[in-house]
Amino acid sequence: MFDYIRAKSIDEAVALLNDPHCVSRPLAGGTDVLVQVRHGPPSFQRLVDISRVPEMKIIEQRGDEIYIGAAVTYTEIIESRLLQETATCLVEASRLVGGPAIANAGTLGGNVANAAACADGTPPLVCLDAVAHIRSLNGWRAAPVAELITGPHQTALHRGELITHFTFPILPSSARSVFLKLGRRNAQAIARLNVAAAGGLGADGRINFARVVPGSTLSHLRRFVEVETLLIGEAPSTELCETAGAEAGRVMVEATGRRWSTEYKEIALHGLVACALRRVFHLEN
Amino acid sequence: MLIQLTVNGETIAVEAPPDITLLDLLRDYLNLTGTKEGCAVGECGACSVIMDGRLVNSCLVLAPQADGSEIVTIEGIHAPDGGPNDLQQNFIDYGAVQCGICIPGMIMAGEALLMHNPHPTRQEIRMALAGNLCRCTGYQQIVDAIEATAKQRQGEMG
Question: Which of A154, A169, A184 is the last residue of a domain?
């Protein structure tokens, strides 16, 4: 048994989440919280519905940055012309999250706060160097998404804090970002592996910008700077993408050790990263 | 708590606990049992309804979240005379119904698709049904029925 209250603003939501008389948790799309309460007694006494807080539904460009409210749904991301132009990897990831009903409900903020290792929304945010903006009774703080998520279903969020929005710098004009996912089937699938990647070329035709973020891979989501370093300064080619894919597999195995799934994951990650980079550098559609 | 919402065009105020799902509200408090419970964790789509113009899994919507919303359930989809509408008739004609438990959700997913995209390709129809599982038909006839309905509605509009 738990109670429900709908917040109309960020200020009201934060006040409700910090009510000392009631253990509260935010409710946005409900696609994680309502599944959890079916599987066991809730760890809270009240859900504070933030899904209709207008300030948390904004998608817009602010100067050189893109601003996305934490209560923005995957469908709203998919339909945003601004994000189609500036955050292709995030739009492509949103298209692969569950089916339409899940995309209509699930939110970007919820995806980060839930911090599932197999999340599809988080690798694009890390790829875009996104920062989460967090509000509490003490005011605002900002944390890179890559630092906020500390492990599977673990974040550095404190009780009473609320992710209100994300910002990320617009990619260089020459850069393109993509997202690929491997699941057990094409639709409504949990990722076995996914990857967000971005890259761009300088005037000399050589790679001067590269980001590679595999998901469902390490316990801590991060950019594979080892792979990015290998790409910088090189001319894009199919062979280079293969080399980068192999390096991604090597980095994963170095971090995780060899386990039962490595035989599959090493090859699959190699292929996934190589494919993503071929798309980034227009070597393949 | 008092939950006020519009269901199939009718404004309703219902007293219900705050911790039940929209699915439970529809079935147990409003006696609208056409919406089915399948997995109850958002994976099968049997409980699909249209909320404020968008397809949702009613098992993953908390009932008070629907306060102030417009809901369309399978009971709200019918011809003016109360019989099957064109999409439902096509499900019958194309043999898209076997055991039937997924069908209310399939019809809602189909109607939601046609609301937003009156000219869907077969691939778009398949993507629209991605969250709706059917263990009987193999989907082919369901896709056929939605495709036929889209073409018929285009003809009527043209």
Answer: A169
